[in-house]
Every structure is written in C-alpha cells, then in structure tokens.
Amino acid sequence: MLVDALRRLLGEAERDRILLGIGDDAAVWQPSRSHRSVITTDSLVENVHFRRETMSLQDAGWRIMAANLSDIAAMGARPVLCTVAVGVPNEHAADELLELYRGIDQAAKTYSCPVAGGDLSKASELFVSVTMIGEVRPSNLKTRAGARPGDVVAVTGMLGASRAGFDVLENRGALSENAMQEATRAHRRPRPRLAEGRWLGASRQVHAMMDVSDGLGTDLQRMCAGSRCGATLDGIPVAPAVVAMASALNQDPQTYALGGGEDFELLVAVYPRAFKHLSKRFRARFGGELYRIGLFEAGSAVRRRAQDGTMTLLAPGWDHFA
Amino acid sequence: MLVDALRRLLGEAERDRILLGIGDDAAVWQPSRSHRSVITTDSLVENVHFRRETMSLQDAGWRIMAANLSDIAAMGARPVLCTVAVGVPNEHAADELLELYRGIDQAAKTYSCPVAGGDLSKASELFVSVTMIGEVRPSNLKTRAGARPGDVVAVTGMLGASRAGFDVLENRGALSENAMQEATRAHRRPRPRLAEGRWLGASRQVHAMMDVSDGLGTDLQRMCAGSRCGATLDGIPVAPAVVAMASALNQDPQTYALGGGEDFELLVAVYPRAFKHLSKRFRARFGGELYRIGLFEAGSAVRRRAQDGTMTLLAPGWDHFA
After folding, report:
1. How far apart (Å, rounded) are the C-alpha atoms in residues B131 and B115?
2. What is the distance in angstroms between the Cα of A45 and the nearest Cα belonging to chain B?
3. Residue B55 belongs to a domain with what CATH number?
4. Same domain, yes or no: B8 and B83
5. Final residue of a structural domain among B139, B155, B173
6. Which of B57, B81, B133 best probes binding to A when mutated, by most A CB atoms within 10 angstroms?
7. Which of A37, A121, A131 sits opposite B45 (nearest CB)?
8. Summary count for chain B: helices (H), strands (E)
9. Quick one: pLDDT at residue B77?
C-alpha cells in the first residue's frame, strides 16, 4: 500500500513530541505539558469529489470544513483554527471563489473555527485543502486504538443519508420530496458531531473513537485494526430516505448504508456495563440516540449478523491488510 | 483585491486566541500562556509553479517544504511538524509520488520538521499543499510590523540566484558551468534561513522580519505597509551568477535581483545603532553576511537610489494598495 510506503519513507515521527502520527483521524502533538494539539488535513477536488452540476461551491466549502471538523471531533478535541489552500482555474473568477469561501465561513462561524491563513494558487481545476488544528486535554484524547473485546460498538446517528443524497443528485433513483430534501441536505450540509465528540471524549467509558467518513464497513475495520480486535455488527440505524433509495436501487438498506461514506457520525467503543447509562445521558444531552450496533470481539474478523442470523464476513481480518 | 474581500468575508479572527491572522508570513495563536504557535500553508501546482522538464519531483518536494520553512523562519519560530495534502493525476503512479515525498522527507529531516499527517486525492494535475506548524517564545516572535524610520534595511544573503536558475533552466540565457550550477541549485534546493531566523528573532534590536519570497521589491513594500513607514534601498547584494544572467539578458543586475523571488533570504529591520554589532555577531555565528541595503524612513514611499544617485520610486506608497 502506498500509505505504508510513505510511512516507511517518512519514518517514525519524533516520539517525544509527536504522540500520534500518520494513520489516525488526526495527528497529535504536545505544545506544552498540559495540552495536546491535534492536526488534520483534507482536500476537495472538483470533478473528483464533487461536480458543480450537483453541488454549489458554497456547499463544497461547507463540506470540506465538515470533513476536517469531523476529524477533530473524532479525537475528542475542539477546533482552534484552520488554514485554507485553494487552487483556481481562473484567478479572476472572484465570484466563484467568494462562493466557496462563503461556505467555508459559514462552517467556520457555526463551529467556532476561524480561518487564520491561506494560500491562493492558479490551477487547471479547482481544489481546496483545509488543515485544521484542535485542542484537547490529554485525558480526553481518544483514538482508534483502545476498543476491547466485549465493548459495545455504537454510532451517534443514522447512516447512509449522504450516500442517498448523492444518488438522488446523480439521478440514480427518485425519492419523495421530503426524503429527497433530507438526503440532499445530509449530502450537501453534513453536521460534524463536535459537541458529541467532546462529550464522548471526556468519558472514561469510551475506549476508542473515530468518525465514519468512508463508510461504516471500512471504518469499523480500521478501528478493529487499530485496536487489535474483531467485531460483529448486528444492525445499523438507517434514515427513511435510505430505505427508500435502497429499495429504488433494489438493494438491502443496511448493506447500502454500510457502504455510504461522509455521514460524519462518530463510531465509539463503549465499556459494556456503562453503555445503558451513557446512552441515556447522551439522549438527555443531545436529543438524539447513541445507537448500539454490535460488539467488539477477540480475534480479527469483522462480521455482520443479518436479521435471520446468517453471518457475513466484512473483512477477513486486519492482519491481511495491515 | 481578492485577499481583502476574503478577509472582510472571514471577518476578524477571534482576538483572544488568534494573535495575528491573514496577511503576515504565518498566523499566530496561543495554545497556552507561555507559548505561541505559528501556522503557514503553501501550495505547489504542476505547470503553474514548476514543470517536470526543468525540475524533478524530488526538487519540487524540497521546494514546497522550503517555502513553508522559510515562513516559519520569518516569524523567529522553529518548525514543529507539517501535514502534506497531495493531488495526483494517476493514483497508481506510486514511483512519482515517492519521488515527491523523498524531497519532502529530505527537507523534513534536514530541518527537523516531521510530516505528521496527510491526504492523498485524485486530481487532473499534480498539486501539493503543505501546512506547517512552528513554535516561538512570545518575546521572540517577529512580524512585518515594527520597522521604524531610521532602522537599517538588511537581508541575510545575496538575492536573485533562484531567478537566474529559473532562467537558465528555461533556456533564456546561458551561463558558465560554475554559475549555472550555483543558479540551478539556488532554484531547485533553496535553503530556508531557520537558524538565522531564530537567532534574529531572539534579538531585541530586530524590529521586524519577513522572508523574501516574492522578490525584494514586492516584499519590502509589504513590510513598509505593515510597519506604516517608507524605505530607500541603496544597493542589494547579488550573486555572480545573477550578474552574468542579467548581462546575458541585457538587464541591470540589481533590477533583475529585485524582481526575483524565492531566494528565501530574510528581510529585517534593525535598530541602527545596533546594526554594526549585530552584523558582526551574525558573521561570527553563521559565516555569512547580514547585508545592509538601505534605511526605513518616515512617509510611505518605497524608493531605490541608483549608484549615480538618481532615485526610482518602487511603489508610490502603501496607502494606495492597502
């Protein structure tokens, strides 16, 4: 894998200051003894990650911020600031660029993460790279490592809506007006779980945390690999729009949602005896549900149990793709 | 100006934590009372900032790191870590990508600035955005503001060699073998002045500092605008290769060097009575010269005095392009 080759080339980061390097949602370092800073970076490229036919530049700006904010949330951190590097085909297309920045600014203000600097280049296609800094108390920092066999697999919300929105916008399937609005909103204006991330980060009952950005199937495998354990999924919460779109596409809604990325919900490993109490407090605090979707197990297999009890292997085990 | 429109849109950054926002070499924030962190970002786009015909991907990797390291140096800071976001036309061109990272890694190791994270995207042309974090003691932080009328304008080295290297590589003029090597090396492997920046940052006699990345003519105007003063340049040090290239192109070497960017020397404003002593200590410490090239003045004009005494206006005054 290329990422592994790069990691070998770049070597182990200075262990005394960089506490967590390439491979988690964000890298962590220690500016002073009482603080941990986290940093993450993510890019959006036109015609690769979005098309103007289906997404405005303002939505694109919001989305790239949401992706970075979600990585900060996944560490249990709060955002501090970000930088924005943009490449634009035509430097005189100021209106378009302002559209992009408007979306960035909306997210920056909504989540208190000011844009502190940037870089503007000419490029043959539009790209935007955001790098974001967050801060977290050392005791609240959560990573992908730490899930233990027996822990509850939980997510902070329903999955698959962003994928359904993408499929609607790409005309792959039709939805009712309400379902369409729900799905396209999830796709264009995802809400990173910042408050939830800080709250879960502060709980000692939460053993591991990451965000679901590439689809639960893939991301759960990553958490299992990071924690050196396996897991079995029992059933995942899906939005009504997802059920409708999956049925329009003749797919199983759960399978559809498992493969859908960019919902930006948080995936957590919770100490089993504490789950009931934690989810009750979560509901009281945030209104939404902390969904129990499975259990971490010994071994390395990541599996899914269907409603009829049959088991599917999602991944043969992290050893094989470590 | 677009940058101003963006600044207005993004508003004033939270004043309590972000101490210096868009517009200096790097943004500054305060992770804790005893520390200042600085952040900067810079991108390199193929066929905009470099062409493979004249620059290897390894050199391109070094250069984008050098540009960011130079911004850190300009604040008087030391680098802590960086993130690298890359867009590549063909994700399977792993060899090419490793070439780029090899150059990044060489700079990362040379200047102790490990790559802590990154992002890899598909893109129709190669781009790389580096974001770098540095740290500095609050008392050592230097910015573009702070130059006072009467201060000496000084630079940490000779200028124009990178431009001469670019012109050689683009076949715009021929040089002797030695001059060519000197110039192409300056263009492909610029050396950011990190040790010098920290040392100058620690001096109370240095009132303002920035790096010369867009050409001394432009950058001195920026320092004057930031410091609300004017300046007169008397003569700038140019490398032998610059004299040769300028003469091959029928240009005045000083004018040629003034317009040449990316030498990554540091431009400083020094308390006049301290300059002689400071430059002596600089020479003893670094071997090279801290060149006195002019004086800051009251007013807003940025001018140049030729050897025959005639004055040229480099900029009518920062009020007009503020």
Report:
1. 10
2. 6
3. 3.30.1330.10
4. yes
5. B139
6. B81
7. A121
8. 10, 13
9. 93
Chain B residue at shortest CA distance from A117: B22
Reading the block at residue B100, the tokens are: 């780029």
Residue type, A167: D
Task: Give residue-wise pLDDT tens across range A159-196.
Answer: 999 999 999 999 898 899 999 999 999 999 999 999 99
Q: Burial, A202: exposed, middle or buried (Cβ in 10 Å; 0-12, 13-18, 19+)?
A: middle
Is the CB of residue B138 less than 8 Å away from at least one CB of chain A?
no
- The letter for the amino acid at B59 is D
Locate the chain B residue with the closest alpha carbon to A1: B94
- Taking CB atoms and an 8 Å cutoff, what residues of chain B touch A87? 43, 45, 48, 127
Of A269 and B125, the structure prediction assigns the larger pLDDT to A269
How far is Cα B112 from Cα A278, in angstroms, rounded to an integer?
A: 43
Residues 186..245 of B with a Cβ closer than 8 Å to A: which? none
Reading the block at residue A299, the tokens are: 């071994």
Task: Determine contact, residues B229/B148, Cβ cutoff 8 Å.
Answer: yes
Going by DSSP bridges, is the β-strand pair A230-233/A152-155 parallel, antiparallel, or unpaired? unpaired
pLDDT for res B14:
44
- The shortest CB-CB distance from B80 to any of A29, A45, A129 is to A29
What is the 8-class DSSP label of residue B124?
Answer: S
CA pair distance A314, A233, nearest whole angstrom: 9
Cut 0.90: pTM above it = no
Q: Who among B6, B13, B48 is closest to A121 (CB)?
A: B48
A310 at interface of B, judged by CB pairs closer than 8 A: no
Going by pLDDT thresholds of 50, 70 and 90, the confidence category of residue B109 is very high
* B124 and B172 inside one domain: no
Domain that holds residue A251: 143-321
Within this chain, do residues B292 and B151 fall inside the same structural domain, yes or no?
yes
Q: Give A-chain residues touching B109 at CB under 8 angstroms.
A: 11
